[in-house]
User: Fold this.
Amino acid sequence: MSEDLITNEKLYEALRREKSKSELQDLEANFYNTVKSYIKEKKSIIESQKDKQSIFSKTEIENTKKQLETSKKILNELFEKREQKIVQLALLCSRTNPEDKGIDTLIENEKEFYFEILEILNKNRDFNLNSLINQEKELKTKDINTTQIKQQNKLLRIISPIPKFIGLDLKTYGPFDNEEVANLPLKIAEVLINNNRAEEIKNEPS
Assistant:
């Protein structure tokens, strides 16, 4: 999908395919970056027309705003649908060890998310299930894992609206509005920061 071919129809078609199949559907490797450029372009059009007084400019602004809002709604739904499938895929792999079958349809950002979830699930299974089966090791294992599962949080300022999502700890977070402050686990915070969805609020030195 090249940038000059992106339309809401193209985005909706990607969402339609994702909703109609239980398996993750193929996306181009640069899909999210390409869509990000598309949204940035639409925002630039709105800004460039604000100071113009013609009726045409006002009409173009309104049309572009509608297109942009529709794009965001489609992308939110597409993201959440794929997110659910990635969590289910990681859960299946953790339970049955199918040698990462099905991850060929994941793009790079999603693969990182998948393997982080899989690692958490495997650690949880190793600790909780195996400690029940092998009770003689329970006390020793408990001491080790109590330290491992401690998780730092980061205080974030949301800079782009975020829909409700399932975190790496399989808990539900959000939705978060623009400029909202959220205290989130470290790994989730890093993903949001790296994807320009949030900024860390750092304590200023006194």
Remarks:
- The CA atoms of residues 26 and 104 lie 8 Å apart.
